[in-house]
Design a protein that fits this description.
With 263 residues, the protein is of the alpha/beta class. It folds into two domains: 195 residues, 2-enoyl-CoA Hydratase, Chain A, domain 1 (Alpha-Beta Complex); 49 residues. The protein is 50% helix and 17% strand.
Length: 263
């Protein structure tokens, strides 16, 4: 019987699932997570991706016991090579997923784990979940794109507060800040995350991909409005030729519920 991997990929009925089985990021966990995310990004049949942790925690960031051993064995610079070797590729793998990404958060979501969660598109949290940046508490600044995500989501002042103070906060506060989409009862977080992911997997996939592209382009800033408008026009032209668009318009006119095939 094969040993369970620290993070695994599976896919069924157009829904790809990446599951973290351990909350702390050892080298093994990071390597398995990266491999699973790359499988999800490379899938030609997945119409949505669901990223899950466990009831105990979504992800608590770097395994500090392993990190301490690495520091003792060599230089601090060598210990932090993991940022380029693992964390950056993990975030880029998440960013490369074109279809919607739903993140289910059952417990603690801190440090790099918070950066990973914010790289998704929709987040469902259990009421017991706790959030925090955590980095300055161990004498580091953030990795995993966390600072950039927080500024984009909250603005500079609030992002600075969370980064400098590192205070833990609950799911209701995360909802108030707009960092999560929904907060549900502790026994319902995975079910609700799966429901949302399944709904997206059954939706107009090409439209979702285009919508993600538009939102990302707008969030990056710096591009002239005329350029963004032209890109919207191009995407609408492409989407207007899909079977999903024609079928949805016909269903609307005839007062039926549309069925999307992703084509």
């Amino acid at each position: 019987m094969s040993e369970q991997r620290a993070a695994e990929f599976s896919e069924s009925d157009g829904l790809a699932v990446v599951r973290l089985h351990r909350p702390a990021l050892t080298r093994e966990v990071k390597e398995d997570l990266l491999a699973a995310l790359r499988e999800a990004a490379a899938s030609t049949t997945a119409r949505a991706v669901l990223l899950l942790g466990s009831d105990k925690a979504f992800c608590v960031g770097q395994d500090l016991a392993e990190h301490a051993r690495t520091l003792q064995e060599g230089t601090g610079g060598a210990a932090l090579n993991t940022v380029r070797e693992h964390y950056n590729p993990i975030v880029l793998a998440l960013e490369s997923i074109q279809v919607p990404v739903v993140v289910g958060i059952g417990g603690a979501c801190v440090g790099a784990g918070m950066g990973f969660a914010l790289a998704g598109d929709v987040r469902v949290a259990a009421r017991r979940a706790k959030f925090g940046t955590a980095f300055t508490g161990i004498g580091l600044a953030s990795d995993s794109g966390l600072a950039a995500r927080l500024v984009a989501s909250l603005g500079q002042a609030r992002a600075m507060e969370l980064m400098l103070l590192g205070t833990l906060f609950g799911a209701d506060r995360a909802l108030e800040l707009g960092l999560v989409t929904e907060v549900v009862d502790d026994d319902a977080w995975e079910k609700r995350a799966r429901e949302l992911a399944a709904t997206l997997a059954a939706g107009p996939t090409a439209a979702f991909v285009a919508a993600k592209r538009e939102v990302r382009a707008a969030a990056e800033g710096g591009r002239p409005l005329a350029e963004l408008l032209e890109e919207e026009a191009d995407l609408q032209q492409q989407l207007g030729e899909t079977a999903d668009h024609a079928g949805a318009v016909d269903a609307f006119v005839n007062k039926r519920t549309p069925t999307f095939t992703g084509r």
